[in-house]
Design a protein that fits this description.
This protein is α+β, with helices and mostly antiparallel strands and about 300 residues long. It is built from 4 helices and 11 strands. A 6-stranded antiparallel beta sheet has the order 2-3-4-5-11-6. A 5-stranded mixed beta sheet has the order 1-9-8-7-10.
Length: about 300
């Protein structure tokens, strides 16, 4: 395989936008039933524990919760898709329909299983990641590569897979919270993979691991989703613009070759991991800090 050229991967900038969310509660069974029927898959329930900390990084609350998901079987791998049922709220500026989102960032074993399928538009490297491990998130893949992954998965299953919109991604990340992180007022290196030698609030500094980690190493958020903060940035469908809602005058400044990324990475300080934080990257670029997860609608 030819050597892949990387773009500079340090110093991705973040700016903010606001997406108000309602307090999370689980959807009625019939709502989930209708959604699973539309996808033609049965739903399973899983239990998990989630952790909230105060601004000093001390555990404020632990909760045992349940969520529903379906399992997409792949060759030598599987993809767990968790149900997200947005609540109606007059405070929410973006209206979302129910959707399913992958429990973890796409792993290297999942990537390999799909990359060996017949191509739709473009070829895919079988082992593109810089940090190797079957349960590590795949990275060093471009936005167009991630779209090809979704297209192949759609072709295989008959279900519509795609990258999340920025609104879908943030709603899934917040998991009913309105704090900077789904973990509360701050985050610690016991809860995410980032440059833990920097503090966000009054929490003590922690570890900087200098690489990605296997997915699921840290507690999930209240939707049962892992690694929404840190590990790898994640591609969204949206084109990148420094302002989330550009004015007509700003509209001409859309950078059409760049796409939005969310979540921060192992190489970032904690402010870049906030639910609201965002940045942009060229859609054909390769970067060892950027991976993705998928949604089904």
């Amino acid at each position: 395989m030819k050597r892949r050229k990387f773009f500079q991967y340090a110093g991705l900038s973040s700016v903010c936008f606001s997406l108000a969310t309602a307090t999370h509660s689980f959807a009625a069974p019939e709502a989930l039933g209708e959604q699973s029927f539309a996808l033609g898959v049965p739903l399973e329930t899983f239990e998990f524990n989630t952790t909230t900390v105060d601004k000093a990084g001390n555990v404020k609350r632990r909760r045992s919760l349940k969520a529903q998901f379906y399992r997409e079987s792949l060759s030598k791998a599987s993809l767990e898709m968790v149900a997200v049922i947005p609540e109606a709220s007059s405070r929410k500026r973006v209206t979302l329909s129910p959707y399913f989102v992958s429990k973890y960032p796409v792993t290297q074993s999942q990537w390999l299983a799909v990359a060996t399928l017949p191509k739709v538009q473009r070829e895919l490297a079988l082992t593109p990641a810089h940090f190797r491990g079957s349960d590590f998130p795949v990275e060093s893949i471009s936005w167009v590569d991630a779209v090809e992954f979704c297209d192949r998965l759609t072709q295989l299953t008959g279900r519509q897979y795609q990258l999340p919109t920025e609104a879908q991604w943030e709603y899934a990340c917040r998991a009913g919270t309105q704090t900077p992180f789904s973990t509360g007022e701050t985050i610690t290196s016991k809860l995410a993979d980032y440059v833990g030698t920097y503090a966000y609030k009054a929490e003590p500094t922690g570890r900087y691991r200098q690489s990605t980690l296997p997915v699921g190493e840290f507690p999930p958020n209240a939707f049962g989703l892992h690694d929404m903060h840190g590990n790898v940035w994640e591609w969204c469908t949206d084109r990148w613009h420094a302002a989330q809602r550009p004015t007509s005058r700003q509209g001409q400044n859309w950078i059409t070759s760049q796409r939005t990324i969310k979540g921060g990475s192992w190489l970032d300080t904690p402010d870049k991991l906030r639910s609201v934080a965002r940045s942009g990257y060229v859609e054909t670029g390769l970067n060892r800090t950027i991976g993705f997860r998928v949604v089904a609608t």
